[in-house]
Specification:
GO terms for molecular function: L-isoleucine-2-oxoglutarate transaminase activity; L-leucine-2-oxoglutarate transaminase activity; L-valine-2-oxoglutarate transaminase activity. Keywords: Amino-acid biosynthesis, Aminotransferase, Branched-chain amino acid biosynthesis, Pyridoxal phosphate, Transferase. There is one protein chain. With 307 residues, the protein is an alpha+beta fold. Helix content is 25%, strand content 29%. The chain has two domains: 116 residues, D-amino Acid Aminotransferase, Chain A, domain 1 (2-Layer Sandwich), CATH 3.30.470; 153 residues, D-amino Acid Aminotransferase, Chain A, domain 2 (Alpha-Beta Barrel). The chain contains seven helices and 17 strands. α4 links the parallel β8 and β9. It is globular, with a radius of gyration of 19 Å.
Length: 307
């Protein structure tokens, strides 16, 4: 039997925020003839909130909502709510669900009619929250270089999270699981490393960090966090083209993202990375990241929104 590679997350929140109203989860329903359900015309964010010594706090909410609004504009969607209104709704929603730490999902989508153009479709907005266990069941995970290529930057609006973009991520994830790996690594059209299905990637060689160029990946909020933390720790970070051969010769490789946080990679395909365990740089950044999101680093408390 194939081992379970990802944890299954079941949203058990009692209440969601939908189109300006707080509703029981079971009443937050969407008609089957919804534009976004058929064409992928939705935008979303993944945001984490954590228990800190002073209470629950949402990590980098402002940055996530800024991108949420930018993603909406990219597909001609005009949200009927401001960033401030969404912030207040998110805080209230977390309180209503009684969660101390978990995951926040802002989602905006086109409702209404069929047909490719969404011009006359109403815009609907949802906020949902749920508890969030560890994304992977093992500390260090295996990764597989996917035969599916990452989206071409010339075919999308850069630095946005549009639901339809992630069909390739689904294909890569399914193929990696079928092949017996925990996660996929996607390449661009030129064969350079980009990222995982929903997370950015870093490598470490001789104590120096490298990550794929921002022009070829989603420059994630967690990616930015890691780069800033690395700088504080005196580490060198280079954005560059990375080949598969170079990646497999790295001393350390790790994924980072809202869901996976900092997750070390033990093997790429059948090649062991370093010792096959989390390396010293990965562990340093993972420890610092956890301190930051839990409000233990004073200089980065500006990234926390109190609930």
């Amino acid at each position: 039997m194939q081992k379970k590679l990802h944890r299954t997350v079941v949203a058990k929140a009692k209440t969601v925020w939908m189109d300006g109203r707080y509703l029981p989860l079971k009443k937050a329903q969407v008609p089957v003839l919804t534009h976004s359900l058929h064409y992928g015309s939705a935008v979303y964010e993944g945001v984490r909130f954590y228990k800190t010594k002073s209470g629950t706090a949402i990590f980098r909410l402002d940055d996530h909502l800024t991108r949420f609004l930018r993603s909406a504009r990219a597909i001609g969607m005009h949200l009927p709510y401001s960033k401030a209104e969404l912030t207040r709704a998110a805080i209230t929603l977390i309180k209503k669900n009684g969660l101390r730490d978990g995951y926040l999902r802002p989602l905006a989508f086109y409702g209404g009619q069929m047909g490719m153009s969404p011009v006359d479709c109403p815009v609907r907005v949802v906020l949902a929250v749920w508890s969030w266990p560890q994304h992977f069941e093992t500390k260090a995970i295996t990764a597989h270089v996917s035969p599916f290529r990452w989206r071409d930057p010339k075919s999308i609006v850069f630095d946005t999270k549009v639901a339809g973009y992630y069909a390739t991520s689904i294909l890569a994830t399914l193929e990696a699981k079928k092949s017996g790996f925990d996660e996929a690594i996607l390449l661009d059209g030129n064969g350079y490393v980009t990222e995982g299905p929903v997370e950015n990637l870093f490598m470490v060689k001789n104590g120096r960090l490298a990550t794929p160029r921002a022009a070829g990946v989603l420059p994630g909020v967690t990616r930015d966090t890691i780069m800033r933390l690395a700088k504080v720790k005196g580490l060198t970070v280079t954005e560059k083209n990375i080949t598969v051969a170079e990646l497999k010769k790295a001393d350390e490789v790790f994924f980072c993202g809202t869901a996976v946080e900092v997750t070390p990679v033990s093997h790429i395909d059948k090649k062991k990375i370093g010792s096959g365990q989390a390396g010293a740089v990965t562990m340093l950044l993972e420890d610092n990241y956890r301190k930051v999101v839990h409000g233990e680093e004073q200089r980065f408390k500006k990234w926390l929104t109190d609930v």
